């Protein structure tokens, strides 16, 4: 790492990190948008949660603020690097230092820690004093697209970026484990903002699977604002009583819809598509 820094410097490392974030964002959000919103849109119309998709100007808003967020996330990468160089973190590079079982545990641990961190910081940002200053930008997308995954006000982006610098202070974690966590987090974030429910009908009927959030869960948060604060899991919302009272019914309604067919036998989904 020191040899790389000697060649490219911190500016080069920042730009490399930013480019990596953009590639990941475009691959995940872009693939979701391309395949679900464009290529298979007609076949999946009946799975649109709010029965309509947002206008194009909302998507531009999401892209604009996501670009700002990625710059802040890249800066947090520099912070993590500086912390590691100063010996402040418990990041390690050799798997044999802790073994494979611990590495798997650390991935699970950071996911659960992030879910807890997200729930409580998210609820805090819904406080009237903070909402307009920090979180309203994200809630401009009352019916989000995959591009909304990182559509944050800069203040919120700083909070969102805070999980890794905090966790690496007390949790030994391998660099590869961090990369796996980032991809998992990005994937679930894009899925949560998809606006199409792709989870199967019986998902919430299983007592274990229902502890994981669906796309409907987060979509309802964007629609109603005052419920469904969780990120990956439906644990804190259940404990704190913040699930929307109609979450499970809404999920069932969406997943039990059948695609409509026109008189000529072709697929004709009923939801309205706006500006896409």
From TrEMBL:
UniProt record, GO biological process: lipid biosynthetic process
Alphabetic keyword roster: Membrane, Transmembrane, Transmembrane helix
Molecular function terms from GO: iron ion binding; oxidoreductase activity
Residue span, Fatty acid hydroxylase domain: 108-242
Sequence intervals crossing the membrane: 12-40, 61-82, 102-120, 163-184
Region described as Disordered: spans on this chain: 257-276
N-terminal signal peptide: none
Record's keyword annotation contains Transmembrane: yes
Compartment(s): Membrane
Recorded GO CC terms: membrane
Principal localisation: membrane
Domain of life from the UniProt record: Bacteria
Protein name: Sterol desaturase family protein
Source species: Leptospira langatensis
Lineage of the organism: Bacteria, Pseudomonadati, Spirochaetota, Spirochaetia, Leptospirales
């Amino acid at each position: 790492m020191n040899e790389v820094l000697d060649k490219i410097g911190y500016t080069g490392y920042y730009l490399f990190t930013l480019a990596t974030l953009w590639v990941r964002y475009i691959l995940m959000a872009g693939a979701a948008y391309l395949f679900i919103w464009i290529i298979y849109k007609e076949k999946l119309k009946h799975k649109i949660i709010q029965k309509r998709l947002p206008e194009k100007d909302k998507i531009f808003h999401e892209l604009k603020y996501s670009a700002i967020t990625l710059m802040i996330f890249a800066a947090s990468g520099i912070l993590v690097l500086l912390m590691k160089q100063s010996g402040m973190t418990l990041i390690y590079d050799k798997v044999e230092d802790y073994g494979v079982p611990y590495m798997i545990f650390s991935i699970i641990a950071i996911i659960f820690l992030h879910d807890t961190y997200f729930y409580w910081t998210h609820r805090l940002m819904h406080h009237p004093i903070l909402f307009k200053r920090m979180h309203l930008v994200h809630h401009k997308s009352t019916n989000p697209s995959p591009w909304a995954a990182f559509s944050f006000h800069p203040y919120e982006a700083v909070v969102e970026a805070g999980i890794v610098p905090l966790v690496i202070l007390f949790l030994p974690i391998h660099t590869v484990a961090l990369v796996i966590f980032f991809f998992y987090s990005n994937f679930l974030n894009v899925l949560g903002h998809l606006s199409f429910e792709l989870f199967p009908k019986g998902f919430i009927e299983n007592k274990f699977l229902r502890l994981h959030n669906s796309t409907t869960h987060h979509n309802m948060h964007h629609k109603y604002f005052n419920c469904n604060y969780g990120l990956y899991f439906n644990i804190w919302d259940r404990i704190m009583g913040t699930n929307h009272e109609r979450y499970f019914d809404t999920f069932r309604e969406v997943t039990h819809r059948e695609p409509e067919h026109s008189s000529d036998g072709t697929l004709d989904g009923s939801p309205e598509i706006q500006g896409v």
